[in-house]
Amino acid sequence: MDERQPLFGGNDEAVKRHEKKEGQRNKLGLLLIVIVILAIVAAVVAVIVTRNESESSTPTTLPSAVKMENIRKHLQAFQEIANNNNNSNLPSRSVLNSYNESAEYVFKTLEEKGFEVTRQYFTIPVNNEGTGNYLRTTFQNVNFNFIEGAEFNVMRYSGNGLASGLLVAPEDKTGCNSTSFVGFPAEAIAFLDYTEECSYYQMAKHASDAGAKAVLIANTESRSSSLPSRSRVTGDDIFSDPLIEIPVLSGSYELNQRLSSMIADTGSLTVNLMANTSNVWATTYNVLASMDRGNKQTMIVVGSHLDSVPAGPGINDNGSGSSVNLELALQFAATGAQPKNNVLFAWWGAEELGLLGSKYFVSSLTEAQRNNISLNLNMDMLGSPNYYRGVYNGSKANPAIRKQSETLRFLLQEDFCSKGLPMVILDFTGRSDYGPFIDDNVLIPAGAVATGADGSKSMAERTAFGGFANAPYDTCYHQLCDNIDNVNFDVLGEMASSVANALQVLMSEDNLQGFLMQETASYLDALKCVLDEKSTIIELDSVSMKMA
């Protein structure tokens, strides 16, 4: 037996009890330390979560979400689609070339992001212009072969064929009424004067109905341009009005004077002409996309035309506007925008044939549907290389929609003004896809932006924007070279920002109609103040606008 005793007079049981208590105290200390650490971690996590929740509670706006690299990606896709065009030997996205592939790219991209996407089909005539056109005559044994483009043109949608006969002016040389052609000799060629009293189509149709073999409509002093017209000779309703089947030519003012003088000298004049042209009917479509968000009785239509001319890929005209439109739509979806007012994104077909896609959309609306559209925003040619920043002058709209369109003008200007960027105020001509909306028979307010087409830059614009004076805004307008290298990406980004800013404001308005009617005066007064103080505004209503 061990004789040793515990120190301090203890025994084995006491030692065991002591060791047990010490172990319990150590475990309790460790537990307390763990609890404290867990409490600290929980507090840190709570702070992080709260901060993240706070940050995520501030929604991302369209202007901050729109990315230039995405817009560039869409432009590159349109370029590749044009390059792969199998319908002609030219890269093109026109109705008869690769428009459908462009439309399907937009359609599928939107569908993948949850949009309700619709193809709105319509059938139209497509005019194909050939070569070898001529207008000739012989006077006093001298042959005259007039110059196409300078002295005459074959009008778009003219009938095809050869014609030879007396050039005869009816008693009423406007040809605006069927009675203008009473006594008109059969098989003659009608010689008419340009007028604003009726359309080219009405003039040509009356001549055709009277038995004319062809029509020559020549300029007078009243037409601002002395050059022969390139206008379309189509009815008010191109979707149903019959086309003119005889050749229809336009003439310059100088040609009008010369031919009139020849007839006066000899009493009669025979002319020979040829119009090498064809018209085919084609079915195409608009792409319409929306989400079930916002009030559908205060709808905003954001549009851009998607087609190009047959001669080129149309990357500035109008891949630029369509790419911005697509990026706006995709970011609208990605940011989870909850607009107060419903937004319909639209890509129009057949704009280059006369705004036909937007015309069809507007003409197909019921009265109730038309009344549910509060406004249209349009984007056409947003990256011109020798650009201006252009905002269309809604202050010149029809009085019935002037106040609302003026508000849209101010709103589109706001982003430029806040950055001190100069801009041009453009004439509200309706020569792009906002035109059918502001038509006197429709009267939906509109706002639009552009950066220039085939007009020439003035010295004032050169001072404001740089670039080259007396040179086209886009030297590749409607040409093969309108490719991705033709786009000025800096101004394209600025135009995208302007539209994104405007759309963000408009779709967030509780009382959109009141806002458009400028009942929110303090906001608009502040806008005007920004305009006066920070930005150069060039009022150039006469600036050369794109003609579709």
Give an account of the 3D structure.
By secondary structure, the chain is of the alpha/beta class. Helix content is 37%, strand content 20%. The strands form two sheets. A nine-stranded mixed beta sheet has the order 1-10-12-11-13-16-14-15-17, with helices on both faces. Strands 3-2-9-5-6-7-8-4 form an eight-stranded mixed beta sheet, with helices on both faces. The longest helix has 45 residues, at 12-56. It is elongated and about 115 Å long. The model is unreliable at 1-21, 47-57, 529-534 and 540-545 (pLDDT under 50).
Number of helices: 15
Low-confidence stretches: 1-21, 47-57, 529-534, 540-545
Give the spatial strand order of the biggest sheet: 1-10-12-11-13-16-14-15-17
Beta fraction: 15-25%
**Average pLDDT number:** 88
Q: What's the shape?
A: elongated
Task: Output the keywords.
548 residues; disordered N terminus; eight-stranded mixed beta sheet
Write the layout of secondary structure elements.
Layout: H1 12-56, H2 62-65, H3 68-83, H4 99-112, E1 116-129, E2 134-139, E3 142-145, E4 152-154, E5 161-168, E6 189-193, H5 200-209, E7 214-218, E8 248-251, H6 253-266, E9 270-275, E10 277-290, E11 295-305, H7 315-334, E12 341-348, H8 356-363, H9 367-371, E13 373-379, E14 390-392, H10 402-418, E15 423-426, H11 435-438, E16 446-450, H12 459-465, H13 489-508, H14 512-516, H15 521-534, E17 537-539
Helix pairs in contact: 3-4, 3-7, 10-13, 10-15
